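Hi L., both proteins are below.
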Amino acid sequence: MTRTRIQFRPVAAALAVLALGFSTAAGQGALSPPAPFAPAPPAVSAGETALTLAAAQRAHDLGLLSAAASLYRKLLDDPAGDRSGAALALATVLLDAGDPAGAEAALAAAPGPRTAAWHLRAGLAALQLRRRDAAQAGLDAARPEDLSPADRAWHLFLQGALFDTLPARDGGSVARANEFYNRARDAAPTEFAKARFQLAAERVRLQLAAPTREDLEQTRRLYEQYQGREAGYELARQYAVKLALLDRKGEAVQFLQQQVLLGLPARERGWRDEFNFLVGLFGDRSRSGLGRNALQQLLANGTKPERQRQALQLLADASPAEPERGNFKAELDRLVGLAPAHPLRESLLYFRAQLALAEKDFAAAEENANRVLLDFPGTALRAQVLGLLTQSAWEQQRFRLAAENARKARETLPAEDPAFAAVRAKLGVLEAEARFRAGDYRYAADVYAAVLRERSPEFAGERLSALIFQRVLSEIRAGAAEAAPVLDAAGKDPAFRTVDRWQAEWSLARALQLQGRIDEAFRRVGALVAGARAEAAAAPADLPADLRLRMGWLHARLAFDAERHAEVLPLVDELLKGLAAAAAPLRDEIASTSILLKARAEFALQQEAAALETLLRLRTEYPRSEAAIYSYLIESRHFAAQEKIGEAQLRLTRLIDNADYRSSPYVPFALFELALLSERLGQEKDLAEANKRIEQLVELPAAVSDAELIFAARLKQGDLLRRLSQFPQAQQAYEYLVNRFSQRPDVVLAQLALADCHNAQSSADGRGGPSHADNAQRIYEQLRDRVDAPADVRVEAGYKLGLILSRRGQTDKAIDVWWKDVITPFLLGNTAGFAAADKRPYWLATTLFELGRALESRDKLEEARRAYSLVLQAKLGIGEGLARESLKRLGVPESKP
């Protein structure tokens, strides 16, 4: 996430009000006044961190060490994340990759205290660097009870390695070493992890002290003596390992290939696996290397699943890029397609899924992952596969699917096993954030609450406070009524940092503000600010000054919105006194917007002289601020509300003509309001002036990309041109809107106006081609039938359609349209009543009168009486006197409507 700023753009609904011809005073909410920056969200979310961590762990488990290291380094760049944990994980990967120096560097840079986990990895790095005493010290400093279950397995491994590297005379024992290696392997959670421990053990033995030449020659003589027998195979393995210890790996590979494998009987499949593994470990694993070929043979034809998984890991690590990566994928494809199925098909599918995901081939990744779940319903890889599917869905922004997969992965892990507590907590956060991003705020809040109840040690300090904040924010988005008590309860939690509490209060206050619950928001913010002021001497150190100032500004703004205008003045004055603590950009923005707020309050208090003086101060002290530019709009609206149209126009002209403001986004809106003011004057020259201002507006670079403003301006321009009787030009304006904004829901307003424009030009019909009347009728019919159009539009279109039909001599069809398509669904079928802003009552009453007259023309007097009676029965509030006169004319007594 990145720092966001409140955008001072018009909302569509307010622009639509302006475009439909309401007064400037009524449309004053069309453009939001400037406001200070909103509090910044974290750079990286907890859900993204959990997802990256899971991906890194999967890559590590599969032997994709370079990919895992890259992901852990990405986590290290997150200042709010668990950088210490990421550093330890990176050190583990580097140890697996045979880079102990890099691992030590990662450990040295790890923030925080030197924990048991840190000492364990330091010991493992020292072991690879053949510093056995330092490795022993690391083991001694890492008490098993202070380690996680996963790290306890590595603790066992290190014990085994120390036995392996200790001379026999000093207590070294291969048997004891193997015992610890096996215990470490058995403690690993997956088959791939088990294979990693065994592979690590093999690598430890390659770190042993190099043998003497005499020892090497003795081993060779013994091998030659027992060649072809069981004892000879073990001696061949020892001889190859000793060659490798002497940095003669090429000779070791040549010996195994030419003297051992060539003569190995077919029945010795287990030993063939061992020798191919050693060739792969010692040999060249590049595209055509002997080591790579041996590993591929082991993977394809081996009999030991553990060695085959190790071959997979070695091949994967040796295939970071093309062409090796392509060859590796091709081999996986071949093995997956074997019939009968390869014994490791489950692992092969999982590997293919991971490689596809790394290349953003989401379809292939999901196909292979789902195949694992379908073909192997009891798979031990279920949690890892669901984690992979979670990442795939997340990266495609299919957040609901990501949440569902994260939930399933979490349910796969036993809740009672503390070894999985941290992973379960991370999956819970991932599910909650995915729900939040999908807009399922109620669901997200519930999942966050469940995670917080568990209070996993994985989330502590700032990260725990951030989760509490995210839970509160989810409640706010789900509905502010639910959020207030949750925030109140969270405020009593000592884990909830003051800075997060204040940011949550900011978010709640803004939500209440949007819901029109201004008084409630004002009370909450006022209580928070007053409480902080009362405890100023002991104010928490973690509350930034800029957040305190933002909240003070919001308090003043809420006072204004709650029409507590007299309270705004002292709140602004106090806020301005405390601005010295803020940085320059925010200080200037809070100062300028606060002074503007004060002027608006003074206007509302009828203190015009004071307000004008305050605006002068604003423009003098902060002449280029957005608040100063916006102040001309405020001043213009003030005079317009008093019908001082000339004064209002003068203020807008000053804004438009100021060379310093030409690139401001407020200039197009000033032109629009100037056009509306000219329209209010009503003379032909004023209407022409209004049209001229709109032409200026649409040509401004600042307005070109503002679809809302362009739509409203062109719609208003069409209305102006019709009033000027310039119907062809008006038609062009409406057609432009219909063509450019065809996907907007409110394009029906332009379509209705276009139909009216055609209808007004129908007297010029008869020149060939579709007539204006035909076009008008067609559009009215379309609007009447559009179920997604507002009811007001459909009723008006139905009424006007009937008029065209009646004028064309199709009175019976007109009657049918008015009764069946207008009156029946929108009057007789209306059970919800009408809102104050609805236009339907007018058009319904007008339709009933036209219907009554049409029925009279057909001598259907009883039906006409019913139409006029409906005007009174429906209480439309329009035309009741005319309805009574019509009924009286048709012989209905006034007392019996």
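That was the first. Here is the second:
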Amino acid sequence: MGLLEALWVALQALRGNPLRSVLTTLGVVIGVAAVITLVSVGQAARSRVVGEFASLGPDLLWVLPGKAEEGQQFATQEGRFTLTLSDAEAIQREARAVAGVAPWLQTSIEVAGGGRREVTTVIGTTPSYLELRALRVHVGRFLSEADEQRRKRVVVLGPALARQLFRSLEQAVGRQVVVNGRAFQVVGVLHPQGQVLGVDLDDRAYIPFRTAQQLFSVNYASFLFVRAQDTASVLRAQREVERVLRREHGEEDFTVLTQSQFLGALDAILRVLTVALTSIAAVSLVVGGIGIMNIMLVSVTERTREIGIRKAVGAKRWDILAQFLVEAVAISLVGGVLGMGVGLGASWAISARLLDQPPSAGAVVPVVVLAFSFSVLVGVAFGVYPAWRAARLDPIEALRYE
């Protein structure tokens, strides 16, 4: 029996039990679609996040609390807040390769204004943050040195938060909002920044750093933004920041990362997350393969007399083996094709919804090819044993089977 004839016989057998064939194929569809969706969305998300951070500029440094262990980029010492406003001032004063420093303190809290209430992210920072992040003010102004020194209760809103509270960006300036039981005057609204992984960067409120420390009864900074004079000065700025902080703290309980180091660590974390999710999805494809093997074993049992008749009229072991193996592969092929369609549609929809951009073709094509190939491999691997069992049946015993 040739391959085409074996394929025709296999398809006829599948048509004989449509419901069972559909349910078996569904397991492969789900597995292939899950692999394609998770890998495609994971790669698109990694590309988007890394791109967003890279857009901050190659001359940016991050100062994080806690000392990273050997071989790690990020500190693992939880609950330690070792950075302060005086650290930022010392760096600005003494590090000559540094163009600017901005401390950062954030919390999620309810903000009320215009008769409405919204839970949002409130960030305490200094006036230098506007230039460090290259942000633009849409209307009004940003925080000033006078606001910082006098601990004024003024706030700059993101455009999304301003619309939620006051319906209009222009009408928000001059109005009051209540943060943690204290009244703040709105002095400005920022230009839109967009979203990253569903996190709205425009749904934020910025207040003076000292005011935030007083409002939330803390004396630390979550981390520090530092910008070097230029790209060529980044490593020099990193050494100077480390020298200043070691002297200020008396120990190295901090981590200074350049933009490239931070992006490398972030990319590594996102890669591990993508691999972990893909591995979980691949399990569902293996489960689909187990379903194929189970159904094929049932099929061998049901068609024992058929196998006996075919052997009695001259069919060889290879013919029987090919018939059942092709049948198993046909299920995985159909499931793989349908899974590709479902996976591509799901990955496109999720990426467009969460990331505002579809996954790139260069990233999707290898994933589709890999997932489809894996589905065929699963069909072969889990179809071999039932096919081998069918091929080994004794024709006399098979003809006697009831």
